[in-house]
Design goal:
The protein is of the alpha/beta class and 574 residues long. The chain is built from 18 helices and 9 strands. It has helices at 5-26, 30-47, 81-91, 93-130, 148-157, 170-176, 195-207, 255-288, 300-304, 311-333, 369-385, 396-407, 425-437, 447-453, 458-465, 467-478, 527-530, 555-559, and strands at residues 136-141, 161-166, 183-187, 228-234, 292-299, 340-347, 440-443, 502-505, 515-518. It has a 7-stranded parallel sheet with strand order 3-2-1-4-5-6-7, with helices on both faces. Helix 8 (255-288) runs parallel beside helix 10 (311-333) and helix 11 crosses helix 16 (467-478). The chain is elongated.
Length: 574
């Protein structure tokens, strides 16, 4: 049987595979034999007879498709970190040199700074132990204020001589006993202007004596370390709760008996003391060439906003604040006073929580019936909401640290002692913070809120301040039982007693002034007499009254501001 073409091709393929497998199994080192033969021929051509050099090269033919390729080379080992770093340094010589020089310089600088600061501190401690004299004097006006004693103790611990003013002789010994010989208390009663010259003479005498005051020997002995006035801190401008600061509407406010004493003690007395101390502060500023300061503490709510029924303290704080602004601008353009800094501190709720007089049920006892009816609901609403008195008070150390930072230019605060690698980062931070907040800053709970509110438009601010009254009114409207309101003003006032009559005689001419006559012994009527109505018929307070046909108010309204000199409030005799 004749095979087909496919069978013949299949046969030759199997024969080819058989021969290839047989050859590969019989001569596994055939490529090495070829190389050995080629090397032998090259050696014979180089070292053999000269005639053999012209022979052509003999190459052992390969196996072609049947030749086995050599194995691939192994992969290179991964480079270590040191090898990579060395390669990068070789590739970037300039960068590596710059980094090395920078690291070396920073290390030398840090080491030198640490060494220098350590030895400077040792020298400072040694010099302090040898000459413990203090020269910088801080005058604190109002040392018997609740915030005065902690501030005085802290200033003495920071290395200052503190001369403070107190209003009573009993407070002198109690304050000086808390110090260590560098605290001197002098009498200055802000309610008695005659004590201001006495205080100034005592201050001049104190500046010429030797400190500490507990040292033995002549207190006025000559010493090369003459005390210099460094800073003035006023706490007299920060009023404490008293009868003069009780909340009351301006309509009911007695200008002579209530506002004038408060203005004298919180505005006139501090400014008069500052006037007398400015020449001494200017002279010491030119002599010492360091930064001086005048720090005045003001209530934040009164200086920034001015709350309802708080006109007494708000008007005094506004007057003092404007005086400080004018003084700051005068100092800026004056000769030789560029180193004096005028700082206003808005103080919020600090230390013990103050008691709100708005919640006092007897706060409206002296009010007339018409004033109670007009201002009573709003006053009661403010008393219920407390107008920020429920805030958690700020720790007193925050205020003291801020004042010490201004006095020492940021070098003696609690943050100033922090260092990193021998560098005083705390001082840099205090300087930046002092530069940002400027010559007026707020400290205490609520002070930041009033500062922000002072930048709001007046319409929006007035709406926010009246919000407690609105909310309480809505609550009272929703109650099932209406809230008792004060009695309204009757139409006709009761007859005026002869002992309290005040008559005003109208001249025939319209341009002639009014002349008034009143008895100097006229007593102020009691609340029961003033509130006695003649008729029970009343009109709503919201409707306008016709003043041409009847009187504008009751006799109690007439007598509420008796003696203030306002003739427009006197009752016209019919």
């Amino acid at each position: 049987m004749v095979p087909s073409i496919d069978e013949v091709e299949e046969y030759f393929q199997s024969l080819e595979r058989f021969l290839a497998n047989s050859l590969a199994a019989a001569s596994p080192d055939l490529p090495n034999i070829r190389e050995a033969a080629h090397r032998l021929w090259v050696d014979i051509s180089r070292f053999g007879p000269p005639g053999l050099s012209s022979f052509p090269d003999i190459h052992v033919p390969g196996l072609g498709a049947f030749e086995v390729p050599p194995p691939p080379p192994p992969p290179p080992l991964p480079r270590t970190l040191i090898e990579k770093t060395g390669g990068w340094i070789i590739e970037h010589p300039w960068k590596s040199s710059g980094m090395a020089v920078t690291a070396l310089g920073a290390g030398l600088l840090a080491g030198y700074t640490t060494f220098r600061m350590t030895h400077a501190h040792k020298r400072r401690v040694r010099s302090t132990t040898v000459t413990p004299e203090k020269r910088q004097v801080v005058v604190v006006l109002g040392g018997d204020h609740p915030l005065g004693l902690p501030l005085i103790v802290e200033l003495e611990q920071k290395g200052y001589i503190v001369i403070t003013s107190v209003s009573t002789p009993e407070a002198v010994g109690s304050i000086e006993s808390k110090g260590h010989g560098y605290v001197r208390a002098l009498i200055l009663d802000p309610n008695e202007p005659g004590t201001i010259p006495i205080f100034l003479r005592s201050l001049a005498s104190t500046l010429s004596r030797r400190f500490p005051i507990t040292a033995a020997g002549d207190p006025y002995a000559a010493t090369p370390y003459h005390p210099l006035l460094h800073s003035i801190i006023s706490l007299l401008t920060l009023p404490i709760p008293s009868i003069h600061t009780a909340p009351t509407p301006i309509e009911q406010l007695s200008l002579r008996s209530t506002y004038l004493p408060h203005l004298l003690s919180t505005h006139f007395a501090p400014l008069q003391a500052l006037q007398a101390l400015l020449p001494l502060l200017r002279a010491d500023a030119q002599r010492a060439r360091d930064r001086k300061s005048i720090i005045v503490c003001l209530p934040a709510a009164d200086a920034r906003v001015g709350l309802p029924f708080g006109g007494v303290s708000a008007m005094s704080a506004a007057a003092t604040l404007r005086a400080l602004d004018v003084l700051r601008r005068e100092v800026a353009v004056a000769q030789g006073m560029n180193s004096i800094r005028i700082v206003a501190v808005d103080v919020g709720v600090v230390g013990e929580t103050p008691v709100s007089d708005l919640a006092n049920p007897r706060a409206m006892v002296d009010w007339t019936p018409s004033e109670k009816a007009t201002y009573g609901p709003a006053f009661t609403a403010l008393g219920e909401t407390s107008m920020g008195q429920s805030r958690r008070p700020e720790d007193i150390s925050v205020l003291i640290n801020s004042i010490v930072g201004v006095v020492s230019a940021g070098t003696k605060t609690t943050t100033a002692s922090k260092t990193i690698c021998g560098i005083r980062i705390g001082v840099v931070y205090e300087r930046i913070k002092d530069w940002i907040r400027g010559d007026r800053f707020a400290v205490g709970a609520g002070a930041g809120t009033y500062t922000f509110a002072s930048f709001l438009p007046s319409m929006l601010l007035d709406g926010l301040l009246s919000l407690p009254h609105i909310l309480v009114g809505v609550r009272n409207w929703l109650l099932p039982v209406p809230v008792a309101q004060p009695r309204t003003v009757p139409k006709v006032a009761p007859s005026v007693p002869s002992s309290t009559a005040v008559s005003v005689y109208l001249q025939p001419s319209a341009s002639a002034p009014l002349t008034a006559s009143k008895s100097p012994l006229a007593p102020r009527p009691s609340a029961s007499e003033a509130a006695a109505p003649a008729f029970e018929q009343t009109e709503p307070l919201s409707e306008p009254e016709d003043i041409s046909g009847r009187e504008t108010g009751s006799e109690a309204d007439l007598e509420s501001n008796y003696g203030d000199g306002d003739a427009s409030r006197w009752k016209v005799a019919g």
